[in-house]
Specification:
globular, five-stranded parallel beta sheet, alpha/beta, about 425 residues
């Protein structure tokens, strides 16, 4: 313990409780953090998971709408070492997915440190350790905790913080303005005209949900987007794409998918939804932009029940002015404008992560940095990508940990943490 005896460290200790972690500190208890916890347990490596919310998978539990289902079949969304129950449908509901994650945490004895928010994480080269400082999200006067560890895993994901663009006049608008993370159902918008800003999967589904609750949705489609059928002749579109990519080049797979989409959905540009010049799978691989998988919204767009409008120029007191000069009277606005990474706010490292909080290296080299820094869930490949990351990170840490501790069998205790006095 003498290595921790410097005066600067002792000064920090006066205001912080210091904790040595004999393994990695994992930031985030969403699916990425849970997957890594399970894989580390298999390797026999102790760990600590820090989660700022009071539950696992807080995005799914607290910031998703009620009608949400997994967009891909369950076999592409299950976490490592524990499949979905057989009786679950092919596309599990939000409730079912949360139940699966809770059973996953129980099965692998994963117990995060809840209500702890990482204030800063910095690597100390003189110590060869990461110093992770956390504060309580429930008690403002609670003592900060400083975790010391050899490995730090960023598992906060790509969708940590809601993004709401600033549009002129928004403060003057007298109606309700919320982000999609606050939207639960269209019940409270019944009989109202609602502008949905964004035409991704969330924007499409919220628009459909609003219509189903007797609201009048207007969906802003400012940028081009690929709308694909969720299934192609009884098979998941994603499954079809994965099968074709085993045998054919990506550009040809995209051509086939677009022809099939045109046969099933027709020409979406007739309804104000332009397709990007880059194919759907190439766009997903290169830029991480997911195609919209249609579950009924397009039929309502065709019928005029969901109206597609161009970008918003500015808000007015009773509505908005569109970029084409039209004025639209609305009662409320829902911003389905996505999320961003929160990594730049707390990680004091600029070599591996860019200014937007994403690894600078592209897939498949974005899971491991230097000095014991790892990521899980930043591949822009959904739950399957997070699971793949978790397996690789756990194997890499496990190999080093077993070598240094000379342990060849899996110990019975998987989460050991001792405080420094």
């Amino acid at each position: 313990m003498a290595i921790f005896g410097s005066s600067s460290y002792q000064g920090d200790s006066a205001s912080r409780r210091c904790v040595w972690v004999n393994g990695p500190v994992i930031v985030g208890a969403g699916p990425s953090g849970l997957a890594l916890g399970a894989c580390l347990r298999e390797q026999g490596v102790p760990y600590v998971i820090i989660e700022k919310s009071n539950c696992i998978a807080s995005l799914w539990q607290n910031r998703t709408y009620d009608r949400l289902k997994l967009h891909l079949p369950k076999q592409f969304c299950q976490l490592p070492r524990l499949p979905f129950p057989d009786h679950y449908p092919e596309y599990p509901t939000k409730k079912q997915f949360i139940e699966y994650l809770e059973s996953y945490a129980n099965h692998f004895d994963i117990n995060p440190q809840f209500s702890e928010c990482v204030v800063s994480a910095k690597y100390e080269p003189t110590l060869g350790l990461w110093r992770v400082v956390t504060g309580s999200t429930e008690k403002a006067d609670a003592q900060k905790v400083e975790y010391l560890c050899r490995w730090l895993v960023v598992a906060t994901g790509e969708n940590a913080e809601p993004v709401v663009p600033e549009i002129e006049g928004m403060g003057e608008f007298k109606g309700k303005v919320i982000h999609a993370s606050e939207y639960k159902s269209g019940e409270c918008f019944r009989g109202k005209k609602v502008l949905v800003v964004g035409c991704g999967n969330s924007g499409m589904e919220i628009s459909l949900d609003l219509f189903n609750h007797d609201a009048s949705p207007f969906m802003v489609c400012r940028n081009s987007v690929h709308v694909m059928p969720r299934e192609i002749y009884g098979k998941s579109t994603f499954e079809v794409a994965m099968m074709l990519m085993r045998w054919l080049p990506l550009w040809l797979v995209d051509k086939i998918l677009l022809v099939l989409a045109w046969l099933i959905l027709g020409n979406t540009e007739k309804y104000g939804i332009k397709r990007p010049s880059m194919g759907p799978m190439e766009l997903k691989n290169n830029e991480g932009k997911t195609p919209v998988l249609d579950i009924g919204a397009l039929a309502k767009i065709r019928s005029g029940d969901i109206k597609v409008v161009p970008g918003v120029k500015n808000f007015l007191r009773d509505g908005v002015e569109l970029v084409d000069g039209r004025q639209l009277e609305i009662d409320a606005a829902v911003f389905a404008t996505g999320y961003r990474s929160n990594v730049p706010f707390w990680l004091k490292e600029k070599e591996f992560f860019d200014a937007n909080g994403f690894p600078k290296s592209s897939f498949p080299h974005c899971w491991k940095g230097k000095s014991g820094l790892y990521t899980v869930g930043f591949t822009r490949r959904g739950l399957a990508g997070a699971s793949s990351d978790a397996v690789k990170v756990a194997a890499d840490i496990g190999k080093i940990w077993k070598k240094d501790t000379k342990i060849t069998s899996v110990p019975r205790l998987f989460r050991c943490r001792s405080s420094l006095v």
